[in-house]
Amino acid sequence: MSSAPRVTFATAFRQTRMFTMKNLTLVAAATAALSLATAVLAADNAKPNRAFSKADTNGDGKISEAEYLAAVKDKTEEAKAKTAFARRDANKDGALSADEFKVAGKKGEGEKPTERKRKKNQD
């Protein structure tokens, strides 16, 4: 006869339960990490969408030059705003799509390198 280790029901149950608890712990940790990452990404993406919706006063899904100028009137001069709008209107259709507007929200995007240097020196 072979001398195989004797496995009782109790031993098998404990080993299975421990294995299951390890799996549950790993799954819970992975789920928490993914949830946190999703929440952070959603928060980053929500800011431009909220600003876009606020600037799109007629709700047509685009921001016209007039809407853009009205949205930034307290933040910048009209001439600079018109230049910024023209630079960000990639397809030159006279309106900013959500994607074109998101680029406008990123710091330094759409600016010439000399403008970034000038701004950095002013700060």
Question: What are the key terms here?
Answer:
123 residues, mainly alpha, Recoverin, domain 1, two-stranded antiparallel sheet, 5 helices, 2 strands
Task: Provide a descriptive summary of the structure in words.
The protein is mainly alpha-helical and 123 residues long. The protein has one domain (9-122): Orthogonal Bundle (Recoverin, domain 1). Helix content is 68%, strand content 3%. The chain is built from 5 helices and 2 strands. Strands 1-2 form a two-stranded antiparallel ribbon. Helix 2 (65-72) packs across helix 3 (78-88). It is rod-shaped, with a radius of gyration of 28 Å. The model is unreliable at 108-113 (pLDDT under 50).
- Supply the CATH class: Mainly Alpha
Shape descriptor: rod-shaped
Please tell me the overall pLDDT: 75
Number of helix segments? Answer: 5
Largest sheet composition = 2 strands, antiparallel
Structural class: mainly alpha
Mind telling me the C-alpha Rg? Answer: 28 Å
Instruction: Report the span from N to C terminus.
Output: 85 Å
Percentage of residues in strands: under 5%
Give the proportion of residues in helices.
55-70%
CATH superfamily: EF-hand
Low-confidence stretches: 108-113
